[in-house]
Amino acid sequence: MPADPGEPGHSVRLLFVGDVFGRPGREALSRGIARLVREAPLDGIFINGENLAGGRGLTASKVEECYRLGVTALTSGNHLFDQKDAEGLLVSDPRLLRPENFSAACPGTGHRIFTLASGYRVGLANLIGRTFMAPADCPFAAADRVLSDFEKAPAPPDFVAVDIHAEATGEKQALAFHLDGRADLLYGTHTHVQTNDLTQYPKGTWFLGDVGMTGPRWSIVGADPASALSKYRTMVPRPFRVAEGETLFCALLVTVVRPAQSGGTKGQVEVRLLREADGGGG
After folding, report:
1. What percent of the chain has pLDDT over 70?
2. Which domains does the chain possess?
3. Is 79 a catalytic residue?
4. Where do the H-state alpha helices sit in the chain?
5. Active-site residue among 79, 111, 165, 190?
């Protein structure tokens, strides 16, 4: 069992994984988690699961597969409803989040506080961008509502993380300034390409433009290169296929180190960017 992070001198390790793409992504996730737990236990594992099932959407069986790996909760995005299971899962599974700024009529929720085995509380929020994306409500206003809910909770979170599923880098950076000093971590998903901009903003919030995809390395954002390249060259749609071969595991590993002397401070936050290729994936 992980050490109690609430005690001075102890730490908590949180793993945030970007878009997990199809079977190769699920297998790369399994291997990546196994490598990390050999270093030290992981207290919480949070993944974006909107591409779990064949690269498009998610199903109950694929979500359950992730839970068996130790995943704590899943965020999602624009491909959430590509499979018919999603609507029922949002109603029945509190560990699955949809973007908070989807319509209020959409089932499920976009934020929740997850209490880990050690008692440490992670407030996780899921937002979706509007620039170059389908219509959605304002992510900035939605973020304000989420933070207000977290602050009013009977047991507020010890750590607040926000997945911004968006296309435009500028929109993500704008949200980073909007949340600076109010969230502990803002990390981007959706583009499937890991960015080299891990930064701690002036008031303390850590930001990464995109965590990157966990899935087939030699692909076009997860798709088989032959079919994807053909469409780009000819404009003629081709059957979508998940790429095979070598895989890539992309994630953020956050370690919260509690101060040696207790005194109300959250502790030092260390963030490690991961991008690891292996030969798995068939």
Report:
1. 92
2. 11-278 (3.60.21.10)
3. yes
4. 22-39, 60-68, 85-92, 139-152, 169-179, 225-234
5. 79
